[in-house]
């Protein structure tokens, strides 16, 4: 493990999703401890996308932004909101020059699949329909997210392809949760890794799926056909249960003719980029912004 990251492990709370409501408070406290980003060059606005129910979003608009990304927070499908994601959405907007539309999707277990996906897709559709008002080129809209949010972004791309929905320019998938089956080597063996481990992943999928069968829109790794999807950037952490399913998904995208950039970050663990003092974390965050900037360039 990267020694700068390893020093912080004793400060991390024990990974547990037995009581999602209690864990939301712990997650919010962790997010509040993250140093605030510089937002001087960003126009930030809270909006509710109409629907039943409406979906809260927070729009981060840099100066002269043209492209946009629908950004979906992590939190195991059960934690996180617009406020916990604020430090990361703002940094992504600043680093990429793109308008970041952070989505406050409904959380499980109160709202199991497909609630979160429906919210993400509603925001994608609304953004495409209101692109000009947002100052966004409708041909330069990406989807992305971290962890559970990365899985939701991949599912949104699948659904948009299948339903001939709004065109998606790019997928920015950071340590995404893609496969409920947990059959890969990393899912079977990473039982005591920091922040995210096998048991926590199992609980996350149980809360998210509820009584519903796992379909490709819930777990994108189950999709039989990945052709025709947008180009993707996939980032993995070496000591993360999701690592192998993410690498396999990237390989399957490549084999389906989809351009992919895959970066496996050595010495890192799931979510460790939140430790901003570590040099590897700074590189991870910078790369997300630069990758999106390049993907949405005219």
Automatic annotation (TrEMBL):
GO terms for molecular function: hydrolase activity. Pfam families: Abhydrolase_3 (PF07859). Keywords: Hydrolase. Residues 69-272 form the Alpha/beta hydrolase fold-3 domain. It comes from the Bacteria. Signal peptide: none annotated. PANTHER family: AB HYDROLASE SUPERFAMILY PROTEIN C4A8.06C, ALPHA_BETA HYDROLASE FOLD-3 DOMAIN-CONTAINING PROTEIN-RELATED. This is Alpha/beta hydrolase. The lineage of its organism: Bacteria, Bacillati, Actinomycetota, Actinomycetes, Streptosporangiales.
